[in-house]
Amino acid sequence: xxxxxxxxxxxxxxxxxxxxxxxxxxxxxxxxxxxxxxxxxxxxxxxxxxxxxxxxxxxxxxxxxxxxxxxxxxxxxxxxxxxxxxxxxxxxxxxxxxxxxxxxxxxxxxxxxxxxxxxxxxxxxxxxxxxxxxxxxxxxxxxxxxxxxxxxxxxxxxxxxxxxxxxxxxxxxxxxxxxxxxxxxxxxxxxxxxxxxxxxxxxxxxxxxxxxxxxxxxxxxxxxxxxxxxxxxxxxxxxxxxxxxxxxxxxxxxxxxxxxxxxxxxxxxxxxxxxxxxxxxxxxxxxxxxxxxxxxxxxxxxxxxxxxxxxxxxxxxxxxxxxxxxxxxxxxxxxxxxxxxxxxxxxxxxxxxxxxxxxxx
Length: 361
Known about the structure:
Helix content is about 25%, strand content about 30%. The chain is of the alpha+beta class.
């Protein structure tokens, strides 16, 4: 056999042809037609001939290299595939058989081989499939710090096909030892100071990006208070006893990136688009709040009182998603009705009525 002018010889002693066979070429083609691989076909023609040709292939062929994805905390870098060079196994086997039949060395040619995973494939599989942004106050430095820590823990996460992501497990426990700081958190329908305050904004932003990306929601919970950074029904509260859990139904990985900078918190998901996504809410049921004094007595008027605790209207609202025409109910979110609590204002803060009467000594 010749390749680029160089002759390659196979020092092989042919086996006798089976009864009915008239040439090694014909015998090879019959074996190949049975689905035998090249090594077995050639070994049937001459002992260890297949092994010798396999060594020749290994020394001359260059296998292709798949395109690869490098994941960083800020995005992905795609490395192009590299084409390889190899032999057509059938033509190579025919050339060997011709030589065994006493024919002249057959010219061989290396053909270009394509990598199983190309750069084009990876570009399709790393499109932006979900993105959501919420706004935050840069003046609360502790809360900003908590947002950034949670984003750092999420950014660069690769969610494999069929894999689930627990927000609590990925971000970890919110403690001062891990760098989290005190900031406002919702507890029992009120804001109090708690370590890790603000992290729910990250889980909420991830939740909304994931819905747009077509991820499955395994677990999510609303707050007791409606969040100022997202509409009612679309928040995702996390705590020591509640989690946000997502699952990837795509046959390809999903790449998660999260950033908190300049008053904007953005979560972006890359992957293969799952279809056209539509989100909407049902008609909410609203139960108006009321005003109570500190004894729990309902007030007809708040004149002469100062606000102790602001209440909220109760809301029941359902959220839905549709992907390529397939509709699903996401969740019923219930935000309880909370009364506003008032107390008597000090006398010096109460506006006295004006009078035109004169006073006399």
